[in-house]
Write a structure and sequence with these properties.
The chain is mainly alpha-helical and 135 residues long. Helices cover 67% and strands 7% of the residues. The longest helix has 58 residues.
Length: 135
């Protein structure tokens, strides 16, 4: 093998390595940008979590927790203080929303939250009533 052939092989290998390095730098720049985006989202989520904890801590530790959101007020209004219990499907029908499983499961979750806040009681599984007023 002569020197010219060896130098040409080295040049070819050098061009390939230069191209590979450029591709890797481009990939690193893209990953760095994606990482920055994800880190910003994580920071936003942490702030949101902390804000939510602060807001709900005051409401959940109050002597008489209030339910101020409109959807929950509408749910509570469906219940008759002297009436029997309602199931999630009954509440969905009373509010004029769908009664598909996704609707009733979402409503059941809201009703369970109201039980946790002692606005409703669940005397038997799936049956909800207003919590009697304490005197």
């Amino acid at each position: 093998m002569n020197t010219t052939t060896i130098l040409e092989l080295i040049d070819a290998r050098q061009r390939a390595a230069t191209a590979a390095a450029a591709d890797l730098r481009e990939h690193i720049a893209k990953l760095t940008s994606e990482l920055a985006t994800v880190e910003a989202e994580l920071a936003d989520l942490q702030i949101t979590r902390q804000t939510l904890k602060t807001i709900t801590r005051a409401e959940l530790t109050a002597a008489a927790p209030t339910i101020s959101s409109e959807p929950y007020q509408q749910i509570i209004a469906v219940f008759d203080p002297d009436g029997g219990g309602l199931r999630a499907r009954d509440v969905c029908q009373a509010l004029g929303i769908g009664v598909a499983p996704k609707d009733t499961e979402g409503m059941r979750a809201k009703l369970k939250r109201l039980v946790t806040r002692q606005v409703l009681t669940e005397p038997e599984p799936g049956l909800f009533t207003l919590t009697p007023k304490r005197t």
